[in-house]
């Protein structure tokens, strides 16, 4: 059994689930763009978030090579779980009813993720410790499922926002601005594009008058 420290800080781990959702780009558009094309992509992404060490990530990759069909299925399931989390969080943002099917799917995986989880003492207080079974290729995303669960039951739930870009960016983020007024995933991209669009429309109105 591999043991992964699931909680480094609430802010960091809450972002795991949001960042995972954002692995589908232009999520709110009619044509989302997938970035996880293989199980290797999934392992690399999880490793890049600091959830797995290089050594542990390599064990998952070696197991995937031995069991390619199981790896493909684990990837498909991870993407399905990502989409369920996305729909749940968007419903939270819009204050809509949580889709029952998605919540049931989420809780099914959460049950697996919390089996064997422990609370351990840390320098900052207490933290979750999640046991990952390296023989289960699906266990790779369990820390992310726990991250989403923690986010949903925390006060940060009220800070979840979706990028207001009209082209369907769909990026989810935590609004930590002082007046809780952040609208864009990034002012340099979507925010700047919206600013330019408003400037252009204002210019057209002035010309028309």
Report on the architecture of this protein.
It contains 7 helices and 7 strands, in the order βαββααααββαββα. The protein is an alpha+beta fold. It has a single domain, classed as Orthogonal Bundle (Jann2411-like fold), CATH 1.10.3300. The strands form 3 sheets. It has a 3-stranded antiparallel β-sheet with strand order 1-5-4, with no helix packed on it. The protein is globular.
Quick one: CATH class?
A: Mainly Alpha
Beta strand %: 5-15%
Runs in which pLDDT lies below 50 for 5 or more consecutive residues are 5-11, 203-207
What is the CATH topology descriptor? Answer: Jann2411-like fold
In sequence order, what are the helices and strands, one letter per element?
EHEEHHHHEEHEEH
Strand order of the largest sheet: 1-5-4
Please, how many domains?
1
Shape: globular
CATH hierarchy: architecture = Orthogonal Bundle
Question: How many strands, which pairing sense, and closed or not: the largest β-sheet?
Answer: 3 strands, antiparallel
Rg computed from alpha carbons, rounded to a whole number of angstroms = 19 Å
């Amino acid at each position: 059994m591999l043991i992964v420290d699931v909680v480094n800080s609430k802010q960091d781990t809450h972002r795991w689930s949001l960042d995972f959702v954002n692995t589908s780009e232009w999520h709110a558009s009619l044509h989302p763009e997938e970035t996880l094309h293989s199980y290797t992509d999934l392992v690399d992404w999880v490793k890049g978030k600091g959830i797995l060490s290089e050594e542990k990530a390599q064990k998952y990759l070696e197991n995937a090579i031995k069991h390619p069909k199981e790896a493909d299925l684990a990837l498909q399931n991870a993407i399905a779980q990502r989409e369920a989390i996305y729909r749940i969080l968007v419903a939270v943002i819009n204050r809509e009813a949580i889709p029952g099917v998605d919540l049931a799917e989420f809780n099914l995986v959460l049950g697996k993720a919390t089996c064997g989880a422990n609370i351990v003492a840390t320098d900052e207080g207490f933290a979750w410790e999640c046991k990952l079974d390296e023989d289960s290729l699906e266990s790779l995303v369990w820390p992310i499922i726990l991250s989403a669960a923690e986010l949903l039951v925390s006060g940060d739930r009220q800070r979840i926002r979706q990028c207001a870009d009209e082209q369907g960016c769909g990026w989810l983020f935590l609004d930590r601005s002082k007046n809780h007024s952040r609208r864009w995933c990034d002012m340099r991209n979507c925010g700047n594009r919206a600013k330019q669009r408003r400037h252009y429309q204002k210019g057209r109105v002035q010309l028309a008058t």
